[in-house]
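Weekly modeling sync, notes
Attendees: S.R. (lead), two postdocs, one rotation student

Agenda item 3: backlog of single-chain predictions. S.R. asked that every request posted to the team notebook include the full sequence so nobody has to chase files. The rotation student volunteered to paste the first one in as an example of the format we agreed on. Action items at the bottom.

Example entry:
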Amino acid sequence: MSSTTPETTPSTTPQTSAQTQGINASRWRIEPARSSVSFRSPGVWGLVKVKGEFERYSGTLDLRRKPAVELTLDAASLNTHNTMRDKHLRSPDFFDVENHPQVRFVSDSATLDGEQLRVRGRLDAAGESMPLDLTATVRRVGDELELDARTEADQHQLGMTHSPLGMVRSPSELMIHARLVRSAD
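Predicted structure, as returned to the notebook:
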């Protein structure tokens, strides 16, 4: 979540459906207990996928402000269920969590068209930054929102190039399944 004062410029088109009505008029925050942020990376020469998730994160969606979408991951909370691999992924060869404790995505633009949310922004990790586009499906579930997003990121653009004998391939697939609740701020 950002500590800067957001602009109040709308970044959406006015198309809404009964399912998405009201999304534009509220600030929403991820409910971590009912959400997940995960990844899959081609590893071992592209034959075996390495799967994992980030266990601690926060995020907001507010289409009335800039940035409209923010997601912050605790880089040290990365978990692939393999202690040695996780230690290596947290090292300077990859996420360098000691010097860069957060992975952040901040949108430059976000457009809601029906249930499709198209977002363009920047992904910051390990002291590097790269552009990232994603499309999410957003649905109302009672007084809450359900968001599903997938995108691909070339970790080499973030300086994560350590790959003995070409074992680590790119791109990695990033997946977000989030339950969002109205935020008081």
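Discussion: group reviewed the output briefly. Residues 44 and 164 are 10 Å apart (CA to CA).
Action items: rotation student to repeat for the remaining queue; S.R. to check formatting next week.
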